[in-house]
Write a structure and sequence with these properties.
The protein has 118 residues and is α+β, with helices and mostly antiparallel strands. It has 3 helices and 6 strands; from the N terminus they run αββββαββα.
């Protein structure tokens, strides 16, 4: 049985950035007001990184059915902050959010946006 290794908020954001920047065609845009890092593919956002008051988070696109299941399974996954709550999720570090889950969520978000309309 493998041990669950959770990520704190900074580790969560660093891992998500590392994964995103290795995806084909991914671009990073920094916005200072408000303080957001926008990750795009084909000109469309697939991930945002920001700090909510006291909480560094990721905001990711998710299939609506999968988003509901994720929110039910993980206390650290909530409706997308400042985004369409049906299609986006917010992920915080800690708890049961581990490296494999973050990698999968970033890849899924990228795929949803990269293959949209093809």
């Amino acid at each position: 049985m493998t041990e669950l290794i959770t990520l704190d908020a900074q580790e969560l954001q660093k891992l998500a950035d590392d994964v995103a920047m290795h995806l084909p065609g991914a671009d990073l845009e920094h916005r200072l007001d408000p303080n957001w890092d926008l990750y795009k593919v084909r000109g469309k956002v697939f991930m945002l990184i920001t700090d909510l008051p006291g909480r560094p988070v990721l905001v990711l696109k998710a299939d609506p059915d999968n988003a509901v299941a994720l929110r039910e399974q993980y206390a650290e996954i909530t409706p997308g902050y400042h985004m369409n709550k049906k299609h986006w999720i917010t992920v915080e570090g800690g708890g049961s959010v581990d490296e494999d889950l973050v990698k999968q969520l970033v890849a899924d978000s990228y795929q949803l946006v990269a293959h949209r309309g093809t």
